[in-house]
Structures
1.
Amino acid sequence: MLELLDPDQQIPKETYEQVYPDLEIRLGACQRAARAAGVPVVVVFEGWDAAGKGKVINRLVQALDPRGFKVYTIGAPTETEEFYPWMWRFWNLLPAAGDIVILDHSWYRRLLLERVENDQADSWPAAFDDIRDFEHQLTDSGVVLVKFWLHISKREQKRRFQTLESNPAMSWRVGPQERKQNKKYPRWLAAAEEMLARTDTANAPWTLVEATHERHLRVKVLDTVAAAMQRELDRRAAAAPPERKPMAVPADWPPPHKTILDRVDLSLSLTREQYDEELGKLQERLLNLEYRLYDARLPAVVVYEGCDAAGKGGNIRRLTRGLDPRGYEVHPVAAPTPQELAHHFLWRFWRNVPKAGHIAIFDRSWYGRVLVEPIEGFCTEAEWKRAYQEINEFERQLAGHGTVIVKFWLQIDRDEQIRRFQDRQNTAAKQWKITQEDWRNREKWKQYEQCLVEMLERTSTTYAPWTILEANCKLYARIKALRTVADAVESALGGKRGRDSFPLATRGRRG
């Protein structure tokens, strides 16, 4: 791939002076149009040390309104960043709709410096999948992603190093790492070739730039960025307006065959005495496991989903009551803010993933994308259908970082829900819990049930399985939840699992 480039590509000065001013005007116009259309742009610069990344970024931003872009230089992860999945810091840098982010180095560092110099053989192979997943999630959501590889020969790099070293003001830019890259040029070249080949996709192609001559470099970079932005603007202008409409009541629901929900035994229950006996032991066990989790630097994510009045809040309170509050955080998830809507739907959840050794508990979660949003018409059909894969990829990256993932669906039947609604409505201390929205959602039971079955079937994976809590009896659901979390953490820590069954459970008796 790189051997086919012509290192002597250049543009005559006369031609450059004719075309470059028009390119700057064109790029500025594209930026204004992208801002008006809400198009986010990410420009990635990779390439050899001394290939001219800093200079060309400087010329690129001179054509832009400084209020609409940010430039980040990506170095080694900080101590804090090391506590999170490695893509976490890049999700945090993503632009909002209409903004531009320019990266001097990027997530490709793992496939180059960390691979060649640090020889982290256990980390870089999986990075190919993580990067491809990340990039297709961005481009599928309408982000313009432009990736440049700035190429110079080994001889040219050495010549530039010598020039820099001869200048007292610039000699600091050539250190042991830069000299080592030139010395190991063939090894770096092989790693770069593989990286380019395996991450050059239809949605996120690489642009290879012969960087020996600055005029050629500037023109090719500005022209490529402007063209990519214009293609997305044209695509949006030609596309039909996105259709977001509430889901209709399914005519063929329930289906003739049994679903996963039909196999849930909602008669399971515990007496108050059985519940009290189990609760204290489990909370003490969980506290010990929380400290062991911290000591092992393993993060944990606990997700609670369920229909209105299913008991999520009470379940979370019993889970956290025995824990050290310094080691966990509860994230109640409501409708996205305007800032969150200006990003990919997973952006706000990436920002709240736990650091190593801590626990994040989500009261509702990213699963709203495939439950609430399709039913209420908050996203298009293409967006929520695509979300199943995006969610699985998100959770796979968390699991790859060692995160313990526990996902609960609290299941109750319609009769139990109406009983709880009426109890809330008739109890002064509980009336704040019931709203017109709850009654309205109840009328969409069939839609929620159909979406729920598909969600459970398509996002229950070996690394992030769903656990259904039989929640007609709140006491039973709480004990099962605490035991499930404890077993999952203990398993991740290498200990023996607790009891998988509930010998104290009874059927048909309310606790």
2.
Amino acid sequence: MTITPVLLAGGSGTRLWPVSRKSFPKQFAPLVGEESLFQASARRLAGPRFAAPLVMTNADFRFIVAEQLDQIGIAPAAILIEPAGRNTAPAILAAALRAAETDPEALLLVAPSDHVVPDAEAFGRAVDLGVPAARAGRIVTFGITPTRPETGYGYVEAEGEGLGPLVLRRFVEKPDAANAARMIAQGNFLWNAGIFLFAARTMIEAFETHAPGYLAPVRAALAEARMDLGFLRLAPEPWERLPDLSVDYAVLEKAANLSVVRYCGHWSDLGGWDAVWREAQDQVPAERGAVADARSTAIDCDNVLLRSQDEGIEVVGIGLKDVMVVATNDAVLVAGMDRAQEVRQAVAALKSKGARQAEHFLRDHRPWGWFETLALADRFQVKRIVVNPGAALSLQSHFHRSEHWIVVSGTARVTVDETVTLVTENQSIYVPLGAVHRLENPGKVAMVLIEVQTGAYLGEDDILRYEDVYSRE
């Protein structure tokens, strides 16, 4: 029997701002290595042990999920779209109910998609250890052997110190430093990785016993779900009635059939920039703990993280100690290394002052490609737009702006009212205010153009859509 991975890919990851934001969170960014954390997670849960993955995400990320899986050659069993964020309890129940439609005994491995586990085979062997217990009706969690008294993680207490499966005695909330040190010294406390292995029937029965209020709404959301361009959209009305709780709170802390398997290999949830710094140190120890990427320079620095996400920005640190500096093309974070868990406060402060950087990048990803703002001022905006081969923007019009398009590379098929024109490199076209228009890429390579908008209002909500191949409203 193969195991179906369930990848949870709907979180926002505010502690890794400014690289992780609501519009494009950390799981889709290449924070460690060339691939995104989501892609690395999908690869880790592929191979002979595993069936095609089931992905739980939201509408904003559905095309990112599909594109990133396609880039690494993994075809999902299904991508389920949650109508609203309701934490992990309803998402995991929805996955179990869907799997049970064809096989109630199907084994599911639920995992966040933003963790770092470099040794996929070692993790696979830990999963193998948990399979007999899962088949016997246990809910198996995976605990990480602690390497330090971490106060940013929850813990689980195991009945014994072996690899397992061991009886899980209890969950422990994030402790203070003294309690964390005490638990590590005791030897049978492990970091709670938030990874679970179970039979679909077992998890459904756990909800029936401990959280029965979830069952009817989740079943209704599945029964009334509709297919949309290959995605399964769960019905919004029953879903939005669900409580916002993790599966730990809703079910697991009340259940008696819990086991834990100890994983002794390297693991990180990249829960803050201090974790990214430690990850870099583990891979290539830096002199005096000064971790600097290719666009950063550390001079006489100790225990620092210097990182630039923009090719045009060089970060230089001189005489710094225990500091992290992370720069993007529109924001810079400077903080003490010991304040990494407080970065989310920066996001809240920026939101309260209405700063776009709190949740959005200058680059916006769309189903057809992406665009980024190059210049923005009163009554004009300049964008770079990249349209994927064969992709098309919606047929639309604007109330407040006109647009000039200059093709930089590739060929654009442009509809303006009743006229269709092929616009090639170094050619331009004008879209008057109010004109019904569409931009398409009929070629086999990405098409790049520069858009100059002029008008009284330049917001992205000034769009009236008439047709859209991506079913956006």
